[in-house]
Amino acid sequence: DGFVVLHDLLPVQTLEILQQGVEKNLSSPSHWANDYTPENSSGRFFDDYVNWQRFPQFEQIGNSGSVPQAALDLMETKTARMFHEHVLVKEAQTREVTPWHHDDPYYGIDGMDNVSIWIPLDPIPESVALRFIVGSHLWNKRFIPRRFADQSAYVETAQDFVTMPEQSELDDMQSISCPMGLGDAVAFHYRTLHASPGTLGTEVKLRRAVSFRYVGDDAVFASRPWRTSPPLKGNGLSFGDQLNDPRFPIVAKR
């Protein structure tokens, strides 16, 4: 299906460590952080990424233990590399939604051995849960990405990429939402289309999550027709090179 819920992957103590990391990240965002909610609007939609080397809480959970082991098992590869972590916070009465998209076109890497493990730090009811379009990772299509701020396309056309279907068309496709309790996580492929609502009109006070992104044996450094997200530079890697770089450590192996 391109996604799976992992029940009881993490104990409460691990969630507390990640909560500490998120608090540090909110108080000290990187230069890549985003606040998608306009001024004078209710709520807040914040994200930031590639901070595991700044905040030991993310390194501890993302680079050892049950999370990278789950990534290795799901990819069925010889190795699992940390690609990056991503913090996403939606506060109460946040209007901004996460539009339908898949992650592969945003990233400056190619390869089908990959998985994101999205860990909520607050209970996720149906009203704010991630939704996934079943089997969309197998369509052999990559869609031109959209900006989260206004849902506009990065470009009109691009070689090897196609235009995203209309939101109404995607809404009509077979999808499954993933409500989760504390300790659960959802794992999904970089090409699986997914979306999530805002918190406006719900009773949700806070929706914090840390998503750890991993790649397997076939991952190589790659270019995109737009600025990648995260906008990582080669730093000695050429396009087509394997990710033999301290920024992408092997965190689990067989």
Secondary structure: elements and pairs:
Layout: E1 3-6, H1 12-27, E2 34-35, E3 45-49, H2 56-62, H3 66-75, E4 79-91, E5 98-101, E6 109-110, E7 114-120, E8 131-133, H4 167-171, E9 175-177, E10 185-188, E11 194-196, E12 206-215, E13 220-221, E14 250-253
Antiparallel strand pairs: 1-10, 2-3, 3-4, 4-12, 4-14, 5-11, 6-13, 7-10, 7-12, 8-9, 8-11
Helix pairs in contact: 1-2
Write up what this structure looks like.
The chain starts with a strand and ends with a strand. The longest helix is centred in the first third of the chain and has 16 residues, at 12-27. The radius of gyration is 17 Å and the shape is globular. It is built from four helices and 14 strands. The mean pLDDT is 96. The chain is an alpha+beta fold and 254 residues long.
How widely separated are the two ends? 25 Å
Give the integer mean of the pLDDT values.
Answer: 96
Largest sheet: 8 strands, antiparallel
Looking at the structure, what is the overall shape? Answer: globular
What's the order of the H and E elements? EHEEHHEEEEEHEEEEEE
| Tally of individual helices | 4
What percentage of the residues does DSSP assign to strands (E)?
Answer: 25-35%
Class per helix and strand makeup: alpha+beta
- Runs in which pLDDT lies below 50 for 5 or more consecutive residues are none
Q: How many distinct beta strands? A: 14
Report the C-alpha radius of gyration, rounded: 17 Å
Secondary structure: helix percent:
10-25%
